[in-house]
Amino acid sequence: MKISPLFKKAVSMALAVSMVITLTVSTNTMTLADDKKSELQAQKDAAQQQLEEIQQKIKDNEANKANAEELKEQYEQQTEVITTQIGLLQQSIAQVEEDINSKQLEIEEKQAEVDVKQAEYDERWEGFKDRLGAMQMLNDGGSIALLSSASNLYQLLTFAEALEQISTKDEEICQQIENERLELEAQRTELENAKAELEAQQAELQNQNSQLDSKKAELQSSIQQQDATISAADAQAEALAVEEEQARKNLDQAAAQLDAYLNSQVDKYSDAALTCSLNFGPALATYKYISCVFGTGGHRGTDFAAPGGTAIYAVADGIVTDATYHYSWGNYVQIYHGKDDEGNTYSTLYAHMISAPAVSAGQNVTKGQIIGYVGSTGYSTGNHLHLEMKINGVLVNAANWIPH
Predict the structure, then answer these.
(1) Which residues form the signal peptide (predicted)?
(2) Secondary structure of the chain in HEC code, one letter for each residue
(3) Superfamily per CATH, domain 272-404
């Protein structure tokens, strides 16, 4: 049967239109998918940022509380030292006060002795004066008249010697008493000086005690301030814990939505005739150590520390469902590996690649094929491969399935 040129032309035009429509629908679908992914990532980014801000506030609050507790401990130690010093000072003050009282008693006793000596001196002096007066009155002429009445030289010398002895003895006794009184006065003065020194020492000790009391009061005020800071930090910690819990819920929800999207990317290829033999190979030929295991602190995968630029391999045959950049994973690749004999689906995700992936979405890959290179892009603190694995869209510990 011969087909007319007109019919061929019509069929060609129909095919062309069909292809245009198909490409347009495909492009629009991809654009919508990219927009949806960007929207979900933005939501997760916002939730992650909110959580990180709250966690930073928690860290700052904990640091503030720890600083207050440290200061409080220092103030309490200083207060304890000062309290001990105050106790010792008060003992010293009490001892000095006791010594002052003792000196005062000694001074009073010494003053009594001085008074006795003074009275004895006064009595002796009065007797001396009385004897002089009596001698003056003897024989109306006093001692001179007495001496004039002597009938011979012996009497004269005897009277003169007697008078001289009486006068000398009186002077000696008076001088002795005076010397004793002066000695007692000197002892009293020495005691008063010692008492004055003790009183000065007491004043200095009381001044030190007053300064320590002021310092202790200042420290106690500082301790109260730190207690207030600690209490405020505890209250803030409770409030931030509530905020953090809500932020985690928001992040979990946003992550779940993004995860659902990533699973939907896998679901696009679920009808592909891929059979997962479960004979997985290593993602890295070599690595330094496992820096973080699955489940630690909610960690989604297993981290293999390795030098930057180390080749990353597909662990099994599959189809690349995603090969792009994510704020947390950095440059990453997601691969769908098909179904096992029981109908379970398997997929893997490789994150933090040093540069754009070596494969693209929709591309078929084989086990051991290089899909990228180890790096530290996204939320990462060092060169490593973050490897995730999902069975039926649920995260599992990749280390239990993939040799390493």
Answers:
(1) 1-27
(2) CCCCHHHHHHHHHHHHHHHHHHHHHHHHHHHHHHHHHHHHHHHHHHHHHHHHHHHHHHHHHHHHHHHHHHHHHHHHHHHHHHHHHHHHHHHHHHHHHHHHHHHHHHHHHHHHHHHHHHHHHHHHHHHHHHHHHHHHHHHHCHHHHHHHCCCCHHHHHHHHHHHHHHHHHHHHHHHHHHHHHHHHHHHHHHHHHHHHHHHHHHHHHHHHHHHHHHHHHHHHHHHHHHHHHHHHHHHHHHHHHHHHHHHHHHHHHHHHHHHHHHHHHHHCCCCCCCECCCCCCCCCCCCCEEEECCCHHHCCCEEEECCCCCEEECCCCEEEEEEEEECCCEEEEEEEEEECCCCCEEEEEEEEECCCCCCCCCCEECCCCEEEEEECCCCCCCCEEEEEEEECCEEECHHHCCCC
(3) Glucose Permease (Domain IIA) (2.70.70.10)
